[in-house]
Amino acid sequence: MRARSMRWGVLVASAALVLTACGGGGGNQLAGGTDVPVDTNAEFAPGSTMANLKQAGKIRIGTKFDQPLFGLKGLDGTPQGFDVEIGKIVAAKLGLSPEQIEWVEAPSKTREEKIEQDLVDMVVATYTINDKRKERISFAGPYYEAGQDLMVKSDNAEITGPESLRASGAKVCSVTGSTPAEEIKKFVDPQNLTLFDVYSKCSDALRTGQVQAVTTDNVILMGLVENSGGQFKLVDKQFTSEPYGIGIKKGDVPFCQFIDDTLTKAAGDGTYEKAWQASAGKVSPETPPLPQLDPCS
Question: Which fold has domain 15-146+244-282?
Answer without folding.
Answer: D-Maltodextrin-Binding Protein; domain 2 (3.40.190)
